[in-house]
Design goal:
Length: about 200
């Protein structure tokens, strides 16, 4: 369960060509952060493909994600099984088969940190914050690819790299590739994005 929450928390993020230099990278990041900051609400469909060495086939899930600027984030999985994970201001609420599990941040400060990381990525603030990640930006048409390489020890134990793809036209996230320290990976592709 903790791993599911972790994957979701780092969300809201292809092979890299040559990274952009300072001024061009800064300008691309400013455009992405500005587009993210203007969003009051965001919803989309997603497909999540999880690859683990011990599994012969990738694990594929599909569903809907919703984000509101007030800090609420909802991941509703529709297949292969139905359940949802909601981040509120005070807790993570997991609903599966009519059972509700409420994981309060006061009981687990780690979950609160995950929520803050997720919100920072969703609203673009995490891309501008110093010290969390080494940031590389590569411009492809029609996408901007941002690679986040963890700087903090806690994050390095979990991820070797987080690669996020953004539409160069709208600045909205179109995909996230979470490369884990153990060699596993999760790719999330977003479609049918709607804002405000």
């Amino acid at each position: 369960m903790r791993r599911i929450i972790l994957y979701i928390a780092v969300l809201l993020i292809p092979c890299l060509a040559a990274a952009q230099d300072g001024p061009r990278q800064d300008e691309a990041l400013r455009r992405i952060v500005a587009a993210s900051a203007a969003i009051e609400s965001f919803s989309c469909d997603f497909e999540q493909v999880r690859e683990v060495a011990i599994l012969s086939e990738p694990d594929v899930s599909r569903g809907v994600m919703q984000y509101n600027r007030d800090g609420r984030i909802l991941w509703r999985y529709n297949s292969p099984s139905a359940y949802q994970i909601a981040f509120t201001k005070d807790a993570v609420v997991i609903t599966r088969n009519g059972q509700v599990q409420n994981l309060g941040f006061s009981d687990s400060p780690y979950l609160g940190q995950l929520r803050e990381l997720l919100l920072g990525i969703m609203n673009g603030g995490e891309l501008a914050r110093d010290g969390q990640f080494q940031v590389r930006v590569t411009q492809y048409e029609p996408e901007t690819v941002v690679s986040l390489i963890p700087e903090k020890r806690q994050l390095k134990r979990l991820f070797s790299e987080i690669v996020m793809s953004f539409s160069a036209k709208t600045g909205l996230v179109s995909g996230v590739h979470l490369k884990e320290a153990d060699g596993s990976s999760t790719k999330i592709t977003f479609s049918n994005q709607k804002t405000n």
